[in-house]
Amino acid sequence: MRTLSRIGNFLFYLLIFLILITCLGSVFLQRPFLFSVIRSNSMYPLLTRGDLVFVLPLSPTASVKIGDIILFKTEDDALSAQGWIMHRIIAGDVEKGFITKGDANKNTDQDSRNTQAIKREWVKAKTLTWGTHVLKCPLLGYPSLWTAKYRQSPYLLPGFALLLTVVLITTDGQKNKGKSKKSKLDLPLIYIGSGLVISLLLLASMLTTSQKINLEYEVANQQGILQGSAIGILQKGETAERFLAELKNKSFCP
């Protein structure tokens, strides 16, 4: 029993360590690090929505080839609004750019209007494989998908912290019946560490899923309408203002 308990504790601490490393890496690198959650079924049946996929970060000089499943984010075309995308390279090279496609999609990503070939500097990682098998954990990405629309709520983090505290207190109370009170001195450290893990996880998730807003417009001698633009064609010297977002601080601290 002691051996099984030690193995369980080791796996638990290893999981916490991986979560911390993943969160810190995502925060500093501004992209998914070690893991990436699949948000759609565009790579079905190889990858399905909710899969947690292991990714291998790539250096700027690392080579990628046709057949690789890469993690990329474009900067100035129609795909930029989709954030990080994990699709397969089906054609192209480093000089001309790569043509990418989801295994379940009929068309390539570049078949869409205003979409260009994927530049090498946009590719930040690729899937980690064992032979021909992509390393993934099915269903483990669903908590991230379920909480996506609630991440900006000021009550999410306190709620998680409260729930975790109740669970830890209940579990510790059952395990330490009849034991000395000295074993309970480590509880504050457990609560602080657990809260830190959750905070880093949510922070990394918010940062890696953040997106920029593109305002398309054109300057000409005459006014006009530009398809797909909320501003249109402006004359020289003319200015235009558009409401972007309303910033509110709903947290408990100023």
What does this structure look like?
It is a single chain. The chain has four helices and eleven strands, in the order H-E-E-E-E-E-E-E-E-E-H-H-H-E-E. The chain has two domains: 80 residues, no CATH class; 106 residues, Umud Fragment, subunit A. The longest helix is centred in the first third of the chain and has 28 residues. The chain starts with a helix and ends in a 19-residue tail after the last strand. Helix 1 runs parallel beside helix 4. The strands form three sheets. Strands 1, 2, 3, 4, 5, 6 and 9 form a seven-stranded antiparallel β-sheet that branches. A two-stranded antiparallel ribbon has the order 7-8. Strands 10-11 form a two-stranded parallel ribbon. Strand 7 and strand 8 form a beta hairpin. With 254 residues, it is an alpha+beta fold. The chain is globular, with a radius of gyration of 23 Å.
Question: Which keywords apply here?
Answer:
single chain, 18% strand, 7-stranded antiparallel sheet, Umud Fragment, subunit A
CATH structural fold name of the largest domain: Umud Fragment, subunit A
Please name the CATH architecture of the largest domain.
Ribbon
What class, by secondary structure content? alpha+beta
Put simply, the count of helices is 4
- The SSE order reads HEEEEEEEEEHHHEE
* Cα gyration radius (Å): 23 Å
How far from one another are the termini? 49 Å
Tally of domains: 2
Task: Give the tally of β-strands.
Answer: 11
Report the average pLDDT across residues.
Answer: 75
CATH class of the largest domain: Mainly Beta
According to CATH, the homologous superfamily of the largest domain is: Umud Fragment, subunit A
Provide the low-confidence segments as ranges: 181-185
Share of helix among residues? Answer: 25-40%
Q: Strand-residue fraction?
A: 15-25%
Based on CA inertia axes, which overall geometry fits?
Answer: globular
